[in-house]
Amino acid sequence: MERVRQLVSHLTPGSSTGLAALERKNPDDVVITMAIRSPLCKAGKGGFKDTRSDELMTEIFKHAIARSTVDPGLVGDITVGTVLTPSAPYEARAAALAAGFPDHVPVQTINRFCSSGLMAVTDIANKIRAGQIAIGLAVGVESMSQHSDANAREFSEEIKAHPVARDCAMPMGWTSENVAADFDISRAEMDEFAALSYQRAEHAEKSGVFAREIVPFTVFVKDPETGKRTTKLVIKDDGIRYGTTKEGLTKIRPAFPQWGRGQTTGGNASQVTDGAAAVMLMRRSKAEELGVKILGKHVTTAVAGLAPRIMGIGPAYAIPMVLEMVGITKDDVDLFEVNEAFASQYVYCVKQLGLDVEKVNVNGGAIAFGHPLGCTGARQIATGFNELHRRKGKVLVTSMCIGTGMGAAAVFVRET
Fold it and tell me: Does the annotation count 401 as an active-site position?
């Protein structure tokens, strides 16, 4: 771990570790100047159900150009995190061009399952630190309406014979039930945390909190009778169920009764959702040269591996790792955004790490408004910085579990 700390010190010139070090400003800091997201809409029936993945990309690129106030020709590279899009490299490049980025701005795609949006941000941040670019754009996007993860994964006989490797092909619902059973997470705890997520999201939406991070999306809607497509404006999340209570959630039947204790339900697991988010990053000296507002800085990202059968507890590995890397403790963190893939894993991580629930997902999470796979890692940054500025806090940690047995976490500091 000392070697890791030395690496972080190298990547953040002029600083060591600890909270005071994180707050210092250096010309080579990797700063965030924009973090926005689309509304999150229910896959198959919500506001984006008739919108293609390349159309979601094009729209978020257009907003990134407009909201960043930076000449798109100055962007040195774009990285797009997406999971299910089968032709992602083609769509991302074409969408960037159609949105207004000149052809000299390169684009790549990245896929590390549920962390893909964060990996896109990390990729751009690392390129800036290495001096390869001065400005970059990270995007996370997923159309779960258009692309399903229902395709069977068929492994070789050699992999099937390996007791750990073969678990990589198992459904995520199975991993949720494994976590609940292995760590004795009760259905009551799961429903209680899920209800809290809905209640917090409802309050945040009704009080206008999300309106400060959401950019209205112009998307296509198909007429069920004629098949013709027309445009409409989507301005808010459509998966938040108002009036949700723990008592109401206890009445929902198990989604996976064949595994474990059968405690995971459609009410205490993340919603299948469409959405997009974008984060612009640049070297601090470049931001000051351009005169753009700085929201905060990315300090570093950590990724951990663990057994695929309990992949959901990844944040319990990644969060301590990233805190150790930068020399702070959980008490130094003002806000945590921990992805609620399933209530089982979310409850475990909060309890195992001893996190103050009043600092975690304070405006709800994926159980309440959805988890568009590739989008979430970037969406958490938009949501986290929005709330961090509202509270005038300093440190944000984002984290998520990752399919096949991994976890990721990142540390950000608000500009003061």
Answer: yes
| 371 catalytically annotated | yes
- Return all residues near 76 (Cβ < 8 A) that are at least 6 apart: 105, 127, 132, 133, 134, 135, 136
Helix ranges restricted to H, 183-217: 187-206
pLDDT in tens, 367-377: 999 999 999 99
> CA-to-CA distance for 155 and 373, rounded, in angstroms?
23
Distance (Å, whole) CA 146 – CA 167: 26
pLDDT tens digits, 40-90: 999 999 999 999 999 999 999 999 999 999 999 999 999 999 999 999 999
* Residue tagged 């809409």 (tokens): 41
User: How far is 125 from 298, CA to CA, in rounded Å?
Assistant: 7
Which candidate in 63, 147, 298, 371 is catalytic? 371
Tallying the residues shown for the chain, one arrives at 416
**Which residues have CB under 8 Å from 161's CB, separation 6+?**
none
pLDDT higher than threshold 80 for residue 150: no
Beta bridge partners of residue 31, listed in sequence order: 282, 297
**Active-site choice (41, 114, 349, 375):** 114
